[in-house]
Amino acid sequence: MMNILIPVDGSSHALIAVHHALRLVHAGLRARFVVANVQETATLYELVVAHDPAVLERVNALAGRDLIRSAVELLEAAGMQVEQIVETGDPANTLIGILERQGCDAVVMAAGTDGGLRAALLGSVTKHLVDHSPVPVTVMREPVASAEE
User: Fold this and answer.
1) How many angstroms separate the CA atoms of 4 and 29, rounded?
2) Which long-range contacts (CB under 8 A, 24 or more apart) does 74-77 make?
3) Is residue 148 part of a domain?
4) Is residue 108 classed as helix, strand or coil in its secondary structure?
5) What is the rounded distance in angstroms from the CA atom of residue 108 to the CA atom of residue 18?
6) pLDDT tens, position by position, for the chain (149 residues)?
7) Domain containing 36: what range?
8) Does residue 81 lie within any of the structural domains?
């Protein structure tokens, strides 16, 4: 049985990777999934205002759980075995660490979103995983609408 990492940022675009993973299972792949979200490290301002790093950790954990909820619900509704992980740090390096610690055999992830800075940041995470992952990375793109539509 394959152990597949699906990094999720909470966007509907990220669910493209979940749908692709489910298509693989429906085609006969035996798999379980690790759905992960990486929260950015707190800024100095956030640390000063919060006064308590534990508060920031709880906020990050709750935010991360909320962001992966849709992906987890889709996988669980399909009867899949799912582990949920929320960590804080540099997304690219943290995801590499997660896949190594969890013994993942592959990564399925979405690339980019609706453009702008967010897409550029997600693109850099995707590129880092493609370049540095010790396991295969499948990158899903949103289908391009045809000119006739």
Assistant:
1) 11
2) 74/15, 74/18, 74/19, 74/22, 75/18, 75/21, 75/22, 75/33, 75/35
3) no
4) strand
5) 8
6) 999 999 998 888 889 999 999 999 999 999 999 999 999 876 666 666 666 777 778 888 889 999 999 999 999 999 999 999 999 999 999 999 999 999 999 999 998 655 555 454 557 888 899 999 999 999 998 765 555 55
7) 2-108+125-140
8) yes
Output the CA torsion 102→82→41→89 (10° steps): 20
Provide the 3-class DSSP secondary structure of residue 94. Answer: helix
Establish if 146 belongs to a structural domain: no
Residue 116 lies in a domain: no
Q: How many domains does the chain have?
A: 1
Rounded CA separation 105/29 (Å): 12
| CATH number, position 89 | 3.40.50.620
What tokens does 111 get? 């690339």
CA–CA separation, 13 and 143 (whole Å): 10
- Measured CA to CA, the distance from residue 38 to residue 52 in angstroms comes to 20
Tell me the CB-side half-sphere exposure of residue 5, using CA atoms within 13 A. 28
pTM comes to 0.84
In eight-state DSSP terms, residue 18 is: H
